[in-house]
Write a structure and sequence with these properties.
472 residues; Glutamine Phosphoribosylpyrophosphate, subunit 1, domain 1; 2 domains; 8-stranded antiparallel β-sheet; 15 helices; 21 strands; globular; glutathione hydrolase activity; transmembrane helix; GGT_peptidase
């Protein structure tokens, strides 16, 4: 029997024969006829060939059944472990979100907001949106993120609630390696009083949080769902669909910033850029110029707040695609640690945050490129979409490309230490828009992606967030 093995994005996949189902994308994207020849072999012949393949080529590996990309290797692996247990993409996203509440406390936590975009490529119906970023979706009994994940589990979950929460509880109890990014976040937010003095490479444990998560994991469904009342329901809607460069783009409807991303992309499309144009400094200049203009015209800074963001991207075997963005109003939220081990987010928020989930599919080929990712604001979203669909960059190249950011006052800044960086010609062009171009210090907002072409999966976690994607 062939074993399904787990891989990470930093360990290349071995080449192997593709696993098949009734919904398999073949070479010409017309039908699932690849398995016709199976009937011609006897059982003995198949076993013999399999043994020979293993002897001569090493462990046999099928095409990945699913992939999860997050800001933490532990959380990506927890997500794929849920898929291996038979869970769907929503289950994996829930488990990964609980894990990030442990492993990335500077950007998310049990009291954080969330937005989910849920799409099934087999039905190709408009994706559903579950938006728990509004002020009404709160409960006195459950922290904000827990309430949103409980509602999502009630509507879409397939595995037991405990199976999705327990891995995060165990991680909090056992501890995880402190990242350089977490140390930088503590320094930037002056949040040393939360966890004491941290050093990269040390183990950080959250004992109170572990106990809280274990209690949450053990809650019966009737008690858990009983906390979901009419007064704290999320905003439920369908995504809006737009076309850009022959691709269908799905983003949340209002009050998300998604519609403004679409408007900005429509302006960019008027330039008729080609892949070759993306190598010229003028290309980045035009992206920055249109983005800067729409920030001013739409008064984006007055309408939206750029908080923290952590993005979970999942694709499962059944072509469920999930993009979950979660975050707080600022690094470490309000900075107030509860006795239950999690940090409270800022209350009485004046405006919604600008984070947005995405699903993009080929508008012509059912089995063409399909991408799941998230972004923290309009400028990052615009750059990611154009790098994927105009520059035709792969998952890793698009996520790791240098980025500019638009500040609240309309000026432009670039990341001061992320590599690769903009070259001197591009920097000079950007300085014509903002003479005193600011260099932004870490930590930077991250975006993670899972991409599918035909039956092949690739994924990448942004080095800005410090994670590694996982596939199995």
């Amino acid at each position: 029997m062939f074993a399904v093995t787990e891989t990470r994005e930093d360990i290349p996949l071995n080449k192997g024969k593709k696993s098949e189902s009734w919904y398999s994308c073949n070479e010409d994207c017309l039908n699932g006829s690849k398995f016709v020849n199976v009937a011609f072999g006897t059982l003995t012949f198949v076993i013999t060939v399999a043994l020979l393949v293993q002897i001569y080529y090493g462990d046999y590996q099928v095409v990945p059944h699913g992939s999860v990309a997050t800001d933490s290797l532990e959380c990506s692996k927890i997500g794929t472990s849920i898929l291996k247990k038979g869970g769907n993409a929503i289950d994996a996203a829930i488990a990964s979100a609980f894990c990030l509440a442990v492993a990335a406390p500077h950007v998310t936590g049990l009291d954080a907001e969330s937005q989910l975009l849920i799409y099934n490529h087999r039905t190709r119906l408009l994706p559903n949106i579950i938006d728990f970023s509004g002020p009404t979706a709160v409960s006195k009994n459950l922290p904000h993120l827990v309430l949103s994940l409980a509602y999502t589990h009630q509507q879409y979950g397939s595995l037991a609630w405990k199976d999705l929460v327990q891995p995060a509880a165990e991680l909090a109890e056992q501890g995880y390696l402190i990242s350089k990014i977490l140390v930088e976040a503590v320094s930037k937010a002056k949040a040393e009083d939360l966890y004491g003095r941290l050093e990269p490479g040390q183990i950080l444990k959250h004992e109170n949080l572990s106990r809280t998560l274990k209690k949450i994991a053990s809650m019966p469904n009737d008690e858990l769902y009983g906390y979901i009342k009419t007064m704290n329901q999320p905003i439920i809607s369908q995504a809006i669909k737009s076309t850009f460069n022959s691709y269908d783009i799905y983003v949340p409807n209002t009050p998300s910033i998604g519609q403004l991303v679409i408007a900005n992309l429509q302006k960019v499309e008027e330039f008729n850029f080609t892949k070759e144009d993306t190598n010229k400094p003028e290309y980045i200049y035009r992206l920055a110029e249109t983005t800067q203009t729409i920030y001013g015209e739409q008064n984006i800074s007055a309408k939206y707040h750029e908080g923290t963001s952590s993005n979970i991207a999942v694709i499962d075997l059944y072509d469920n695609y999930v993009s979950l963005v979660t975050g707080m109003y600022d690094l470490f939220g309000s900075g107030e640690m509860t006795t239950h081990g999690y940090i409270l987010d800022v209350k009485n928020k004046e405006k919604p945050c600008s984070r947005v989930p995405f699903v993009i599919t080929d508008g012509n080929l059912i089995c063409g490129r399909r991408m799941v990712f998230g972004a923290n604001d309009l400028s990052v979203a615009t750059q990611l979409v154009t790098s994927l669909l105009i520059a035709n960059e792969n998952a890793t190249e698009s996520i790791e490309s240098p980025r500019f950011h638009v500040f609240r006052n309309g000026t432009i800044g670039i990341e001061g230490s992320h590599l690769p960086a903009f070259n001197e010609d591009i920097v000079n062009y950007l300085q014509t828009l903002t003479p005193n171009l600011a260099l932004i210090s870490e930590p930077y907002s991250s975006s993670n992606i899972v991409e599918k072409v035909k039956d092949d999966l690739s994924s990448h976690s942004d080095s800005r967030g410090g994670g590694i994607a996982s596939r199995f």
